[in-house]
Amino acid sequence: MLDYVEFLESRFAERGQGNIFTRFTETVEDNLRAGRVSAGVIAETVGLLNKAAGVFNGAVAAGKSVATDFASAAKSATTTPRTGGAPPSSGAKPAPGGPGATGAPPPASASGDAT
């Protein structure tokens, strides 16, 4: 009797509910029932498909999480000003010799000779 009720529910229930994995599992179940496969085999098959759907849903959720994190990091990188001093276009000329150079002559050697 329960099989007949489930059959009627599957035939007349509104389709389109749930995600693609749920619809796939329901279609496989319907085809197995139509092929007069035993209830035990159907239950095992549906259980296996539900486990697979759980794995796929987890992978999809992880992918969405990574994509969201990537998008938020990219957005914050483009909106956050960079630090590290004034940009070269501020009008100040860099000292000769690169960063940290003072323009003073090099120190004399220990013997007192300038090399």
Description:
The protein has 115 residues and is an all-alpha fold. It has a domain at 18-79. The chain has helices spanning 2-12, 20-34, 39-79. Helix 2 (20-34) packs antiparallel against helix 3. The longest helix is centred in the middle third of the chain and has 41 residues, at 39-79. The protein is rod-shaped, with a radius of gyration of 35 Å. It starts with a helix and ends in a 36-residue tail after the last helix. The mean pLDDT is 77.
Ranges where pLDDT stays below 50 over 5 or more residues in a row are none
How much helical structure, as a percent, in the residues?
55-70%
The whole-angstrom Rg is 35 Å
The secondary-structure class comes to mainly alpha
The proportion of residues in beta strands is under 5%
Mean pLDDT: 77
Order of helices and strands: HHH
Terminal residue distance = 104 Å
Please tally the β strands and state the result: 0
Question: Which characteristics define this entry?
Answer:
115 residues, rod-shaped, mainly alpha
Task: Produce a short descriptive summary.
The protein has about 120 residues and is an all-alpha fold. The protein is built from three helices and no strands. The protein has a domain at about 20-80.
What is the topological layout?
Elements: H1 2-12, H2 20-34, H3 39-79
